[in-house]
Amino acid sequence: MTPKLRRTHRLIWLVLAVLLPVGLIAALQLPRVSIPLNKDRTTPDVHQRLLPTAKP
Amino acid sequence: MAVQYSSVLWNRQKRRYDFVIAALIVSYLLIFCVLQATLFPEVTTETILIRATSTLAFLLLHIVLVIGPLCRLDARFLPLLYNRRHLGVITFLVAGVHGVFSIIQFHSLGNVDPLVSLFTSEQEYGQFSQFPFQPLGFVALLILFLMAATSHDFWLKNLSPRVWKALHTSVYVAYALIVLHVALGILQQETSPVYAGTVGAGLLTIVSLHLLAAFMGQRHELRPTSPADDGFVAVCYVNDIPENRAKG
Description:
The complex is a heterodimer.
Chain A: H1 3-29
Chain B: H1 12-39, H2 45-73, H3 78-82, H4 84-107, H5 114-120, H6 134-149, H7 153-159, H8 161-169, H9 171-184, H10 193-222, H11 227-230
Helix pairs in contact in B: 1-2, 2-4, 2-10, 4-5, 4-6, 6-9, 7-8
């Protein structure tokens, strides 16, 4: 690893160390459970907000 | 004189490394699938596979990402670095199974192409709260694919070490995309603090180790170890030495 790449590598992690926790916390602050629970849990609940385009 | 490459230069260490990885992966998948089938008996096999491969790929990516800083902090972890390429390729394969099963389960049998559906079923790209989480995972999978496909000395030689390393540094982008994929996806549904806490703990571990390794490395560069400590005097970086020089 060259010195320049090493510096870039460190800079990337410094940026990620700030951005990733901020992004995660921001996502957790969103109004969750906007999707109704799938009681029988036959499909991953999170995908219920997807509306599949069924064949006519 | 031609340069010949073989797919994998197997040796005893690599075989042991891969055997341990395979054993751990099979054990994880078995335990996870049995637990899922027991706790949620109504869940379909496809869903169990999607969940098992998603958590496993995320876990493997964490392991791949901590190996580098761990080795810089303590030389005893160097055996883990030896065959990290294989671990990275396996991570892509597991993530690929998750991606393929997800696309088949949620985007096939529609009136649009599954990949088109992947990018258009949710279109609120301008809002963070509704930002589509699936394209994030897809782009991350593409990055993992590029890395897995070029994880060979052939590509290291032909792309040049600089380009190859830059390409493989994009794993950090992939990791960021996957964290957002998880945060905007499953964490929006599963409100238990256990899930968010687990993701947060993984993130904290990786970021802390990388920052600590960077800090220690920086300190070592500013105040290099004296010759009395290790018997060597640092004169330059290896890359500073011209070709065909400094030979014994």
